[in-house]
């Protein structure tokens, strides 16, 4: 596996741990369908939260969240709708929210973590 893939997986693991510590329940990770992949799907009592995770070793080439442009955000909304169609019971009675988590630093274990709720 490429170092970039390892970095991304470690970042997603740290993001999931952060979400659990904040009281979220993780219901899906790396969910795939023909349209693409969702990094993390989590729930609270009232919300279904789709989380895009971006991990970078530095911000030398820009902040990690700069990679989430309008086109990517629209794609995530479509993927969220596909996830809901495939898991209607998990979504029932919950409001959908799209979040982004950015991790910046050489090691995801102690990288700076930014969680933007409803960012997309």
If you had to describe this structure to a student in words, what would you say it looks like?
- The chain contains three helices and five strands, in the order αβββααββ.
- Helices cover 33% and strands 35% of the residues.
- By secondary structure, it is of the alpha+beta class.
- The model has no long low-confidence stretch (mean pLDDT 93).
- It has one domain: 3-Layer(aba) Sandwich (Trna Endonuclease, Chain: A, domain 1).
- A hairpin with a 7-residue loop joins strand 4 and strand 5.
- It starts with a helix and ends with a strand.
Average pLDDT score: 93
Q: How many structural domains does the protein architecture include? A: 1
| β-sheet strand percentage | 35-45%
N- and C-termini, Cα separation = 30 Å
The CATH C-level class name: Alpha Beta
Question: How many strands, what sense, and barrel or not for the largest sheet?
Answer: 5 strands, mixed
CATH architecture: 3-Layer(aba) Sandwich
How many DSSP-defined strands? 5
Q: Percent range for helical residues?
A: 25-40%
Q: H/E order of the elements?
A: HEEEHHEE
| Largest sheet, spatial ordering of strands | 1-2-3-4-5
Topology:
Layout: H1 3-21, E1 25-33, E2 36-43, E3 47-56, H2 70-86, H3 88-91, E4 95-104, E5 112-116
